[in-house]
Every structure is written in C-alpha cells, then in structure tokens.
C-alpha cells in the first residue's frame, strides 16, 4: 500500500509540474476557441479561450478588434492589474508587415523596423497602423458577469483571453520565445 501511495504522489507531482522548454508550442484554433499546449508533438493541455470582438477575419490594422492569424512567439510575460497576467506576442510578424507594406498601410521604414526587430528578437514597433499589444491574458478581477461573458462571447480588442487560474497554469508551460501558431 505504501508503494502505491508514493507512486501516486510522484505521478501527481510530475503532472502538475509542467516543464517549459524549447519543444513546447502553443496552437490556438480560432474556430474551436481552443489554446492547445504541445510538447514534443504531444498535447499536454487544452484551454477554452475568447478572441477579439471584431469577428473571425484576421487582424489587419489597429482598432479592428480582431485576433491575428499566423506564427508568433512570446516576447514578454508580466503581471497586469487590468488582466491579471499578460503574455505579449511579437505581433506584427514579418508576414503581417509584408501585407501591410503591399497595401500601403505602413511605410518602407516601418517595414524595415519590423523586420529588424524580428531579426534581432526584440518587440516589433507597436505604434504602426497594424497596431500592437497583442497577447494572451487573463480576465482581470473575476466577477460572475465577466466569467459568463468570457464563456459565451469573444470580447477582447484582439487578444486571446483565458480565466486567471488558467493563464497562471499556462505560464508554467511557456518561456520567452515559445512558438505560437494561430490558425482557423
């Protein structure tokens, strides 16, 4: 009996201590409202998330309240008085910048600044027509109404939102640089 208890304690401990490493990735499936944590190709955890209130199209510009689609990575992780925790993505990515330059939303100089930021691994400019401050965050002070809205509606200005206890759990899986795929 003692061996079973020790084994069970070790099993519980091992599964509750997620290890963030370079083989961890996040896949965010917009059509299913899911954030999937994968490590070495295996699914470790799935969370329900909410997106931008602007609909299903991909983010095109600042203020459109839509969530971007594409490949990103975590650039910053910080506590937030408004959202409990905020994991900032390296939005806009190079493809966002190419599209914006082609459509004359940004200047060639802004395009170069975004490319340079990605080349050297720092946060791209956040003040272009593409917008910025896109991330994964909690819902802040959780009230019954906020939780109900979170469960049934896309309510953010373009970010990916989860419950506060879930973003704390997610934080155990990721590091700065964790890759994120946002797909339909």
Question: What can you tell me about this protein's structure?
Answer:
It is a single chain. The chain is of the alpha+beta class. The protein has a single domain, classed as L,D-transpeptidase catalytic domain-like, CATH 2.40.440. It has helices at residues 2-16, 94-102, 108-120, 144-152, 164-173, and strands spanning 24-29, 34-39, 42-48, 70-80, 84-89, 135-137, 160-161, 179-183. It is globular and about 45 Å long.
Features:
184 residues, alpha+beta, L,D-transpeptidase catalytic domain-like, 8 strands, 30% helix, globular
Q: What count of helical segments does DSSP give?
A: 5
Strand residue percentage:
25-35%
User: What is the averaged pLDDT score?
Assistant: 91
Largest sheet descriptor: 8 strands, mixed
Physical arrangement of strands within the biggest beta sheet? 3-2-1-8-4-5-6-7
**Taking Cα atoms only, what radius of gyration do you get, to the nearest Å?**
18 Å
- Considering DSSP H and I runs of 4 or more, what fraction of the residues is helical? 25-40%
Order of helical and strand elements: HEEEEEHHEHEHE
Number of self-contained structural domains: 1
Full CATH superfamily name? L,D-transpeptidase catalytic domain-like
* CATH architecture descriptor: Beta Barrel
Cα distance spanning the termini: 49 Å
- Secondary-structure-derived class: alpha+beta
- The 3D shape can be described as globular
Low-confidence stretches: 5-16
CATH class: Mainly Beta
Can you summarize this structure?
This protein has 184 residues and is an alpha+beta fold. 30% of the residues lie in helices and 25% in strands.
